[in-house]
């Protein structure tokens, strides 16, 4: 099967998994679920859950466990996008060619959708269905909380907002991007070591893999913000330039940034290649990150 077809099929099927795993309750009689489902159906690459699923295959994790962890991290990612799009944050009207949640509904609904998606994530992760061992579930909850919150993605978003008024050095940009983007990649790549109870053996290896992958992904995002096609990407481009934000591109230039991102990808491939044929999909994901046009 063509890899692009594989990715498209995974995204479509996983979107259905996400909708089906949303908890049901007689108490939910408002438009909240409608807005959540709309947000999920807008779609996306589902790269983070794909990383969870592929690393879980390598480490022999049950699919039923992996799918719940993959759903949890994607719900966190979706919540972050809904909140990032708000007028008080990035102020975007389009997400993947569709109206953003606050434009389709309203700002208050978008805030509540983000709140709900975050709580759903931890409700799923802490449930007995995610793993029979309570210690494993506790570690997963703790790890995702750290990656998504105060010392992770949220701090990265705050630093990104403050970056509009600062002159950053390259190491400061790396730190910001590791928090804003890299921390969810970190969880997506290391969760399988917790699920399989093989942290001592594999955690650091997958941590390094995720760090390279996350930074390369963000550099490519910055490149697309300059070179990308707005219609193909389904959102505004050149936002960082208009806001005066410093990125790898503004400090190093496009060509040097591309070379650095490609070096990160090659290192990531070398790290994961020890798993032989089992790592084929992860290697293709690495290559796809630099080739993508949206």
Question: Care to give the gist of this entry?
Answer:
This protein is mainly alpha-helical and 294 residues long.
pLDDT < 50 runs, ≥5 residues: none
**CATH homology group:** Farnesyl Diphosphate Synthase
Shape: globular
State the major sheet: 2 strands, antiparallel
Q: What separation lies between the terminal Cα atoms? A: 22 Å
The level 1 CATH classification is Mainly Alpha
Oligomer: single chain
- What is the H/E string? HHHHEEHHHHHHHHHHH
Which percent range fits the helix content? over 70%
Question: Would you tell me the overall average pLDDT?
Answer: 93
What can you tell me about this protein's structure?
The relative contact order is 0.11. The protein has a two-stranded antiparallel ribbon. The radius of gyration is 18 Å and the shape is globular. By secondary structure, the chain is mainly alpha-helical. The mean pLDDT is 93. The chain has 15 helices and 2 strands. Helix 4 packs antiparallel against helix 6 (107-125), helix 4 (63-84) runs antiparallel to helix 9 and helix 7 runs antiparallel to helix 9. The chain has a single domain (3-291), classed as Farnesyl Diphosphate Synthase (Orthogonal Bundle). A hairpin with a 2-residue loop joins strand 1 and strand 2 (98-99).
What's the arrangement of secondary structure elements?
Elements: H1 3-21, H2 32-41, H3 47-58, H4 63-84, E1 94-95, E2 98-99, H5 101-104, H6 107-125, H7 134-148, H8 153-162, H9 170-195, H10 199-227, H11 230-233, H12 239-243, H13 248-252, H14 254-272, H15 280-291
Antiparallel strand pairs: 1-2
Helix pairs in contact: 1-4, 2-6, 3-4, 3-9, 4-6, 4-9, 7-9, 8-9, 9-10, 10-14, 14-15
